[in-house]
Design brief:
By secondary structure, the chain is mainly α. It has 10 helices and no strands. The longest helix has 16 residues, at 132-147. 54% of the residues lie in helices and 0% in strands.
């Protein structure tokens, strides 16, 4: 039995070309199910779960298969190699990437505790024209907010399990419950509408 047929036994709609956008977005799908759907409909099935879901949603809305460039151009990937040495005055460009050269630079300024966080990466992506010093200041500000309990780490959409478990423990009625209870609730939610 393939993934698309298995859906029937779980009380979910079948993931096929007849599914509504609302049903597709409402229900939890394994990455393997999404890839299976893509293969059967000549849609690119590689990439993250979020990317695959976006392709399927686009296909369901338009009937068109999204055309994507296979890779970023070499120019955009290797631009840092051709620039002068990095400094706190280096300007963040639209070609900025979280590569090893940038990681080494930020570690040299911030210290060995530096690591790329989702918030930091989003700051660099969304603040073209600002400097590396601005990015460093943002990193320290994020760490300060974490210590003060004012900031909760963002969990990317493709990590639904992690987000569900954190949300489960955030509910007052679940305080003191064990992980196996959270996992059982997760398993139940995958099969129910609105999970």
């Amino acid at each position: 039995m393939d993934f698309l047929e298995e859906n029937k036994s779980e009380g979910r709609p079948v993931l096929n070309t007849e599914i509504t956008i609302a049903d597709f977005k409402t229900h939890y799908w394994l990455k393997e199910e999404l890839q299976d759907f893509c293969r059967k409909n000549d849609i690119i099935s590689t990439g993250s779960k979020l990317e695959i879901s976006r392709r399927i949603e686009y296909f369901l809305r338009t009937g068109k298969r999204e055309i994507e460039s296979k890779r970023k151009s070499r120019e955009s990937i290797s631009h840092v190699k051709n620039e002068d040495e990095l400094s706190v005055n280096t300007i963040i460009t639209n070609r900025y990437t979280n590569n090893e050269k940038n990681r080494a630079f930020f570690k040299s300024i911030i210290g060995p505790q530096f690591h790329f966080t989702t918030r930091f990466m989003n700051f660099c992506k969304n603040n073209v024209g600002k400097t590396y010093q601005d990015a460093i200041d943002e990193w320290f500000f994020e760490q300060k907010e974490k210590k003060e309990g004012k900031f909760k780490t963002e969990i990317a959409p493709q990590f639904e399990y992690n987000r569900f478990i954190r949300d489960f423990y955030d509910k007052p009625e679940n305080k003191g419950k064990k992980l196996k209870e959270a996992i059982a609730a997760w398993e139940k939610s995958k099969r129910e509408r609105g999970s």
